[in-house]
Design goal:
The chain is α/β, with parallel strands linked by helices. The chain has a single domain, classed as CBS-domain, CATH 3.10.580.10. It has seven helices and seven strands; from the N terminus they run E-E-H-E-E-H-H-H-H-E-H-E-E-H. The strands form two sheets. Strands 1-7-6-5 form a four-stranded mixed beta sheet. Strands 2-3-4 form a three-stranded mixed beta sheet. Helix 6 links the parallel strand 5 and strand 6.
Amino acid sequence: METMNVNELMVPVDEFPRISHSATFMEAVSALETAQEKFLSGESKQRILLVVDDQKKVIGKISPIDLFVGLETNYAKVNSEETIKRHGLKYIWKSMQEDYRLWENPFKDLCRKAADVRIRDFYKSPSGGQMVKADDPLAKCFHLFVMHRHDSLFVTQGDEIIGLLRFSDVYQSVSDSMKACGI
């Protein structure tokens, strides 16, 4: 395990379903449901839905939790670091709800949102803490998985996303290595 690199466990982007960043909220709901159904039936090995730009370049991913961000668009206004500094940890959630009116009317105009809101309006681009290079050692990934609690990391080559390293695959590899010890 100590000598393994990311490219030995990553899954190439070609193996994932994709959706355009200009797709609607409802199209995202439908695509996620389809990906889940295909995964559960064994028809597909992946249920992570990648987001692509107009040039078909992978620019991120979308999950069901991202859809909640799409329902409550005020999350885009939240700067958690600023809020923590300003209000302190004890009152952070109450303060954020009051300041940004979070979840006051998340389902208001739900049908309009489903048709008008686009994925590009609420998906998050991968951060530095969610990106690794194909030739990085797995040890670097362990740190990122633990510290940032990501379920997968984007694997890059140059400035292009070429795959994903899923926590489930890393865990399986670690588990297999431990079992091979014969303890």
